[in-house]
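Recall that a protein's primary structure is simply its ordered list of amino acids. Everything else, from secondary elements to tertiary packing, is in principle encoded there. The following example makes that idea concrete.
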Amino acid sequence: MKLGLQLGYWGAQPTPNAGELVRAADEVGFDAVFAAESWGSDAFTPLAWWGSATRRVRLGTSVAQLSARTPTACAMHALTLDHLSGGRAILGLGVSGPQVVEGWYGQPFAKPLARTREYVDIVRQVLARETAVHNDGPHYPLPYTGAGATGLGKPLRPITHPLRADLPIWLGAEGPKNVALTAEIADGWLAIYYSPRLAPMYNEWLDEGFARTGARRSRADFEVAASCQVIVTDDRAAEIERLRPVIALYVGGMGAPELNFHAQVYRRMGYAAEVDEIGRLFQSGRKTEAAAAVPDEMVVETMIIGDGDRVRTEIKQWSDAGVTMLLVTCGDVEQMRRLAALADS
């Protein structure tokens, strides 16, 4: 099992010891380091800044939001980071949700699957640099010929020659159609709230994508990177209690009540009644009660919590379910060393 350090996105301030953690990831055997973005810090700059002190780990976005940049601008970020890191970049992309897309970026959220397909195709055109980049699709037309166009635009190739035409593109996906699309056009799946118990269902979604005409990869060379809290502790109950508010926030407060992708994921796991109750309490401002309504099972379904033997056993279960990398958060270097040893044992 490979490990990826998930730096996430910043809160009010940068993570104080992030640079130390990134350097440690390079030293203790982590495969990759990932940075995210929401509506504050961006995903690329931390990788360039802290990643400059590393020599081995891959540097990935998990995820860069489609609506934050045009496809060509995103490809510029990726090829630049890939050159600076000596070919270690992973471009992780995701559509985010309508609250962010329309509320922060001022872009329409409609047709996320079609937008993703167009976006990835354009990025790959830039990275291949075989011809001038061109797109007839309705979402990212190149050259632009719509309202206000001068008519002077022309297809261009990137001035800088990309280091790798096959720079890996991974997609963050939660629903069946999006996961199938990921298997069809991407090199890896960034899975959030993955449940090994539901691996047969995920495999059906993935197999649908792999079977499509022109699919880029097969299961043999496709990466599944699952976000997973891995906590080594002798007090499992205390850690479960600490994590209830996190689940309540994502299930009850992330996204609009009528369209919350994280809540939909837990519904598929069989927690529909619990999701309804958590959402009702959270939306009414009763956040403490919402956290208390999160059952133990909802916490441990998507996380690994326990002593060393339990963690080692469950890591194997996730691997047997098809996960090739666990994306973990770590607070200190010692925790990273323990996880690296357990994942390698």
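Residues 234-306 form one domain. The CA atoms of residues 115 and 139 lie 6 Å apart.
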